[in-house]
Amino acid sequence: MATGCTRRTTLLAAGALLAAAMADPVRAAALPAAALPVVRAGVLKFGTVSWELDTVRANRFDEAAGIDLQLVELAGNPATQVALQAGGVDVIVSDWLWVSRMRSTGQALSFIPYSTAVGALVVPAGSPITGIGDLKGKRIGVAGSPLDKSWLLLKALAGDRHGLALDRGDAQPFFAAPPLLNRKLADGEMDAVLTYWPFAARLEAQGMRVLMTVSDMLTALGQPADVPSIGYVFREEWARANPAALAGFQAATARAKTLLAESDAAWQRLAPLMQAEDDATFRTLRDRYREGIPRRWGPAERDGAAKLYTLLAKLGGRELVGDAPTIAPGTFWTGGA
Question: Where are the domains positioned within the chain?
């Protein structure tokens, strides 16, 4: 009986500490790590997500928000997805298209926004290419696979506006990893490269010209351009069992975003993680990250994502979205019951 009372007293005391921590960030920072719920985030060591989460830990924003954020370094995006599904981590970064597809197969994952940044179509500074119509007959490097969402949008835009079938003879697409594409563009082996934003930023810093961002493509196709494309993804079961941990994680990452949006000094500390070759690259990476910080996330943005999903489902078919022509309910976490 005494043991039961002691255990209950300990649990009540821990609960009181956590409640006080969430109400008082200063006291939260003073709590021992053992008293705080752990949130394990799966990251790539030099990925852009590490910049934000490293900022959280370096400034003890996690402790102030009543959590102990632990970073689990993994080898690649597929590894982070496997780790999340297996319960090896609590949070990763992925896109809502993948979350919806997983939900449609019975895996209840949910999404909260991380960034609106996607990528861009980049050409050499002196290139004669001035618009999508000029891509006819050109060698286009594409980061990822033929199902890459940016490639699907570029193809749709080229077809709708210029009557071009970029994947059926009107151009020469080449699918590869972003670092290889950057080298090929610099060496003159590619006429244009469609790549993810950090790699586009590196090319831009080298003097290459951004012909069109993916946001520009969305606007041209009548789609919302400010919808967060990637976000923090977690298991719904975990979120419901650990609401304070999820709330603390959201609060801590929001503070990190605010700091990175406002403080150049915070970026200087991140320089080793950024692996910028020079000052121009450092500044461009910093500025493009800042541009991608989500400004809004409400019903309008969620409706915009659902609209975009319908377009991507049409463009990519079952290979991209499986058997779900519309976005799965619950893809976006709203904290509801």
Answer: 1-35, 36-116+227-321, 119-220
Q: What's the chain look like in SS3?
A: CHHHHHHHHHHHHHHHHHHHHHHCHHHHHHCCHHHCCEEEEEEECCCHHHHHHHHHHHCCHHHHCCCEEEEEEECCHHHHHHHHHHCCCCEEEEEHHHHHHHHHCCCCEEEEEEECCCEEEEECCCCCCCCHHHHCCCEEEEECCCCCHHHHHHHHHHHHHHCCCCCCCCCEEEEECHHHHHHHHHCCCCCEEEEEHHHHHHHHHCCCEEEEEHHHHHHHCCCCCCCCCEEEEEEHHHHHHCHHHHHHHHHHHHHHHHHHHHCHHHHHHHHHHHCCCCHHHHHHHHHHHHHCCCCCCCHHHHHHHHHHHHHHHHHHHHHHHCCCCCCCCCCECCCCC
All residue ranges of the chain with pLDDT < 50 are 1-30, 337
**Secondary-structure class of domain 119-220 per CATH:** alpha beta
- Mean pLDDT over all residues of the chain? 90
pLDDT value, residue 336:
54
Assess whether the region 36-116+227-321 and the region 119-220 belong to the same CATH fold.
Answer: yes
Q: Residue 192 to residues 121, 123, 143, 168: CA-CA distances in angstroms? A: 7, 5, 11, 17
pLDDT of residue 26: 40
pLDDT score of 316 = 95
Instruction: Report the topology of domain 36-116+227-321.
Output: D-Maltodextrin-Binding Protein; domain 2 (3.40.190)
CA pair distance 326, 135, nearest whole angstrom: 32
